[in-house]
Every structure is written in C-alpha cells, then in structure tokens.
Specification:
Number of helices: 7
Order of helices and strands: HHHHEEHEEHEH
Length: 174
C-alpha cells in the first residue's frame, strides 16, 4: 500500500513540511505499518529526532491515519503511547480528496460550458460575457478591446482530467 503513488502523495501532503527537508518522514509511516508502535522505537530505527517523530505522528492522528493507546508506567508514572497506522482510513481519505477534486473540476467545467469568455490581448484579464459587457468589451487595465476566447480545448482538457480522477477514485483499494 505504501508504494502506491496516490498513497505516497497523500502521506507527503499530510506529513511533509514545505519549509523543512523532511523527505524521510515517510519512514515513520513505514515503521508504523511494520508494527513498530512507540515513538522512541521509531526515532531509534529511523534516526529521525524524537520531537519530529512525535510531530509527524500527531499529524497522522489529526488526519485520521493513525491512532494511539496511552499507558501509564506504574513505576515512573510516565505515560507512553502505542501508535497504530490505520490503512483503511488511507483509502477513505484518498476517496474524499479525489471526490472533492472531481467536484471542483466539475464546477469549473460547468462554468466553462455555460458561459462565453473574453480575454485581453495583453493577458491582463479574462471576463465572462456579463463582465465583458459591463466593461464595454474593453480591458479596464490597458484600454485594449477584449476578444472572444474559444474554450473548447480547455473544456476537453477538463473532461480528460475528470475522467482520469474518476479512474483513480475507482481504483482505490483494488
């Protein structure tokens, strides 16, 4: 499951920090998936600092992809946590993300199919018919006359993207 590119993209989106180089964080998930349950064991096995491991485990928890059980050591009175990766939630989360993407693309597609668009030849703006009409078919930034933009190719590319996303959606968990 962890070798699936869709799963890897989802996990990277959840656990990677855009500022820091944390490409090794996927190893934390691999450890959980392999049955290593404590943050200390994961830190030791991966060589990733304990505070980073904990931060990533909580990100996975917040996304619903990991759960934990808390235990109190009777001698030290310290709490320890046994973590567990939730692979079935990965598929649910992937489906949700892809479904949201499909819905967004379908809204854009609907808008593109049901409207006429006009563009500034200088590339300043793109207008729907109503906005173009309100501006007397002139770009408010440069004063150039705006021109009709055929969007057949864009509509076709949106339809292909939606079909591709639907294929991905249907392939999840298979």
């Amino acid at each position: 499951m962890l070798d699936d590119p869709l799963v890897q993209d989802l996990l990277k989106e959840i656990i990677n920090d855009p500022i820091e180089d944390d490409s090794d964080n996927i190893e934390i998930v691999r450890c959980l998936n392999d049955g290593i349950t404590t943050d200390e064991e994961i830190a030791e096995k991966t060589g990733i600092r304990l505070n980073i491991v904990r931060k990533m485990l909580y990100k996975l928890y917040d996304a619903g992809l990991a759960s934990y059980k808390r235990h109190k050591d009777p001698e030290t009175q310290w709490f320890s946590y046994d973590w567990q990766f939730e692979p079935e939630e990965v598929n649910n989360t992937l489906r949700k993300h892809i479904h949201e993407e499909i819905e967004e693309y379908e809204k854009i597609l609907d808008d593109e199919k049901n409207n006429m668009f006009f563009v500034c030849p200088q590339g300043h703006n793109r207008f729907g018919f109503e906005d173009a009409s309100n501006n007397d078919f002139v770009c408010p930034e440069c004063g150039e006359e705006i021109v009709f933009e055929p969007n057949d190719e864009f509509i076709e590319s949106l339809e292909k993207e939606i079909a591709s996303l639907q294929e991905k959606y249907e392939s999840i968990g298979n």
